[in-house]
Automatic annotation (TrEMBL), chain A:
Residues 18-159 form the Creatinase N-terminal domain. This is M24 family metallopeptidase. InterPro entries: Creatin/AminoP/Spt16_N, Creatinase/aminopeptidase-like, Creatinase_N, Pept_M24, Peptidase_M24B. It comes from the Bacteria. Residues 170-388 form the Peptidase M24 domain. It comes from Sphaerochaeta associata.
């Protein structure tokens, strides 16, 4: 029992209420049960780190039943709020494969011989989204005659979009931890310290500092702490670190990730390893200006397209729009919920952010901006979880927004 | 004892209970409290049989055999009579039988996996009984 929190904890989340809310939504949509497979669903409902392929069966009433990989079932049982009996293991053994277990759970244990089963299907840029595979779908369909499988992930997505107090508190702490990592990197770089460092070592310095503060993972699947320097800062929005040495006159991008009770810290800070040229300084000043401009416009009622317009208008006035990647945010929630903005499938491209999604108070996104001049070998990235409010937003990382010249 | 006892018969069951209670150290059974029933499909004369075992605090308190219906148990293992006979003879481990799909388990695998060595201990004791495994 490592991870359960009592109600007096600022990080407490009422997980039973989340399940009850989902069950009410299931009833409204005529679902007799729901099988969740996405990490975002498992995190949101079970409040535990569940990385292996898992299936949570949610009946109309009563406690969910999780089927997870045998190698990890005992740990998950120790960390989730579910009763131990409701954390089951699957294994390559007769009657213990996932399809047999889900089928027996629905038809024998819950006693539902036919009905409508909510499942999670779709597409995501995020590889680890965890939708039901075609194989699983066809196997379940064959094993459950009389059942209709219905894509119903929107129920969980809708419930998870407005962040409750416990979730926000966890994100604030994850962001505080990331800021400690950023300070540790700054100290390591200062006074010529950068001369002895590679990108991978910078990532490690940050990781150690954040782990000391209680982070349990540099959760990002695109390279953990993403560190890039020199021309690599201009290669786009995915920069797993390499053994490249930091070098004089080059930019450095430090994109750190922490995890605290499944909440995800994510803050990218940028440097110029001096001496910087006037042109580099100009790019850096432009970027800081653009980020501040966009942050100033996040509030209830704003939309991704209105924010992108603000960003591009300002970039035009600064004469740097050629260097800006379109878009200024991505979604965020507890572990596994990392990409899509909003929950409805009402945009021009299903499963992509609806540019006209209207932000509400209590939503969170990662404000994410990428600036790159590949020809000049320079780029910057800003990422910070922000909490949308009625009249503005709260950037959760409090690390100063500036691009220092390090000597 | 030289006389062979009929597999799953009354005398075999009585001998099994006696051996299980005398040979199995509750501490080696981790003082577990659980119950398990094996359902033997396609047995002699096409019948289905069961073997039921109940432990309390590691001590075997019930051991029953007979034709189905079987008593309720925490774990149900189902498979052909011939496979269970191979396990009792010590020719096949119950874990391998499950891993190859020859047997099907119902019950919480997370707990069952910790009980697998205990099941092997039970089978080892039962294999000591001179048994007439009826052909099927």
């Amino acid at each position: 029992m490592a991870g359960r929190l009592n109600q007096s904890s600022p990080y407490y989340i009422d997980n039973r209420k989340r399940v009850a809310d989902l069950q009410k939504a299931m009833e409204r949509e005529g679902l007799d049960a729901y099988v969740g497979t996405r990490p975002r669903t498992l995190s949101f409902l079970l409040d535990a780190f569940i990385p292996w392929r898992s299936y949570v069966v949610i009946p109309r009433t009563g406690e969910p039943i999780l089927h997870t990989f045998i190698v990890d079932a005992t740990r998950v049982g120790d960390e989730t709020w579910l009763s131990t009996d409701n954390v089951r293991a699957y294994a390559p053994m007769g009657g213990q494969d996932p399809i047999s277990l889900i089928t027996a759970c629905l038809t024998e244990e819950l006693g539902i011989s036919r009905g409508r089963l909510g499942v999670e299907d779709g597409i995501a840029t995020y590889t680890a989204e965890g939708n039901l595979s075609h194989y699983e779908y066809t196997q379940l369909e064959a094993a459950l005659p009389g059942w209709t499988l219905v894509n119903a992930h929107h129920l969980v997505d809708e419930l998870s979009i407005i962040k409750d107090a416990g979730t926000v508190a966890r994100f604030r702490e994850a962001s505080r931890i990331v800021d400690v990592g950023q300070r540790a990197v700054f100290e390591a770089l200062s006074n010529g310290g950068w001369k002895h460092l590679t990108e991978t070592v910078v990532g490690g310095i940050a990781a150690l500092a954040m782990r000391k503060e209680g982070s349990v993972s540099e959760w990002n699947f695109a390279g953990l702490n993403e560190i890039s320097s020199g021309y690599r800062t201009a290669l786009g929005a995915c920069t797993p670190p390499t053994t490249k040495k930091l070098a004089q006159g080059e930019p450095l991008m430090v994109d750190l990730h922490s995890m605290f009770h499944l909440a995800l810290g994510d803050h990218s800070h940028n440097y110029l390893i001096g001496p910087a040229t006037k042109r580099q300084r100009r790019h850096a000043d432009n970027f800081v200006d653009l980020v501040q401009t966009v942050l100033d416009h996040y509030k209830e009622g704003a939309t991704p397209s209105s924010l992108a317009q603000v960003m591009m208008d300002r970039a035009e006035s600064l004469d740097c729009s050629d260097f800006l990647l379109p878009g200024c945010e991505h979604g965020i929630g507890l572990f596994g919920d990392e990409w899509r903005i909003g929950h409805a499938m009402d945009g021009p491209f299903p499963y992509w952010t609806n540019p006209d999604h209207v932000y509400q108070e209590g939503e969170m996104v990662i404000c994410a901006m990428q600036y790159a001049s590949l020809e000049e070998g320079i780029g910057f990235r800003y990422e910070n979880p922000i909490l949308i409010g009625k009249r503005g937003c709260e950037p959760l990382s409090k690390y100063p927004l500036l691009i220092e010249e390090i000597l | 004892m030289n006389e062979k006892l009929m597999y799953l018969g009354k005398s075999w069951r009585d001998e099994g209970l006696k051996l299980l209670q005398s040979e199995i150290d509750p501490q080696k059974m981790h003082n577990v409290t659980t119950s398990m029933v094996d359902i033997y499909e396609h047995g002699p004369e096409g019948k289905e049989f069961f073997l039921f075992l109940k432990c309390e605090d590691g001590k075997v308190v019930a051991f029953e055999t007979g034709e189905v219906p079987a008593p309720e148990a925490e774990f149900i293992i189902r498979g052909p009579y011939s496979v269970f006979a191979s396990i009792t003879r010590g020719e096949l481990s119950s874990t391998r039988a499950l891993m190859t799909g020859k047997l099907r388990l119902k019950g919480n695998m997370a707990k069952a996996v910790r009980l697998a060595p205990l099941a092997d201990r039970v089978n080892k004791v039962l294999s000591m009984i001179p048994t007439d495994y009826r052909e099927v």
